[in-house]
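Fold Annotation — chain and its backbone

Encoding — discrete vocabulary of local shapes
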Amino acid sequence: MSFIINAFKNFLHRMFQILSFGKKSISNSLSIYVKIIGGNTITVDLDPTWDIKNVKEIVAPKLGLEPDEVKIIFAGKELGDEIKIEECDLGQQSILHAVKITRKIIKLPQESSSSLIEENDDQSSQPLSKTLDDSMFSYDDSSGSGGNMEREMLNSQNSLHNSKVHFYIFCPTCKAMKSGKIRVRCHFCKSGAFTVHSDPQNWNDVLRPKQITGTCENSSDICANILNNREPTFAEFYFKCSEHTSMGEQDEAVPLDLIRPNLREIPCLACADVRDPVLVFPCSAGHVTCLDCFRQYCITKLMERQFWQHPELGYTLACPAGCTDSFIKEIHHFRLLTDAQYALYQRFGTEEFVLRSGGVLCPQPGCGMGILIDPGCNKIACVNGCGYVFCRLCLQGYHIGECQSNENENNTNEEGCIYNVDPNRALVARWDEASRVTIKVSTKPCPKCRTPTERDGGCMHMICTRAGCAFHWCWVCQSAWTRDCMGNHWFG
């Protein structure tokens, strides 16, 4: 009896082998969701070593189509048949969009009216993550021709270094800074079945709405009305964390656009070390600091309560080199602090907002409740906090009559800031001027006022041209001009 059972098992095993002949085996399964126009979603297991043609062969039968009648859209691009799945920056439970190819009949410019051909509207291309280079991280004025030569030079340098450009995000799920992935959807209907007409060239194209146009494959009423009104459809870029399993299209992260891979090997503004990644301040010089020094800069300013309450940007900081218009706009960059430090940052920011709004903080130790009060009211009660009743003018217990003077009220903490910026380093730690090495040779700061001074020839006796300074100094010694300088190296 057992012989018959074993023979039957062998027969079934051979039948399964015959039925599976010709099919690709999966050595490393990648579970992917494929969305179909109409709202249906199917789950497929793919091997990262497969190409998009294999994906079409799996998806097409489920749509009742042939593989060459299907196009696969991911991250704003239609993927070509020869592209490997592992090149697409896919993670577990990522979403692909399968769309039926529409064919256009085009009449050739010939005398015969029967000369007609069919043309597919698909344009195979590389994934968006492979088409963005280092120019994405700067050159906001990409329309100018002055940056073209520098951009080409940087691109050639990148190809030599074979470095991969990464995005950095703050992930609400991981609650930390992580590497991120850029994704695209329709600005109007939020469908991911969307292909862009051109790649973004700078952060403005990504962060600002309605910068890049594209084609939406979704047949929703919203996009149909837009097409009927002959309005362009725009792309909406967003980011996802690349270090945890995707939780759907609503799983988004905050882009940290100031944190960038240090492909140009620029030294830090404070410590002069070359680190990766770095933070580039949004000033005209693009000063660069490593993340450790940025944390120290934030902690120092936080302990001294030297953050700036910006009317539009909130509680933020500017470039430590003193550059104008250099405030950090995305406050999630301060999530690089520890949880306790970020909680203190939020507390101080709230308190500063209350004070600038005409309110007061409860002076009772351990409370600090922010209280908004009516103008002219001097008797304040911490109703929702500790219940302490105090005088608005002197912040002491409420009293009748004039306030007593406090001798210590004008005392301030005058300890030096442990985050220091050397002006010499500030000249080097610039993002968009990393390739300009001449400034390190032909420019030195005045020893008195630190104003950069350029020497284009002549003797070593320098006179600062800044108004109110006029300091006489030696180019070699970088100190006050003396007779020794005159005798030893007046002419070098």
Q: What stands out?
A: The two ends are 106 Å apart (CA to CA). The chain has three domains: 24-104+119-140+158-257, 278-391, 444-489.
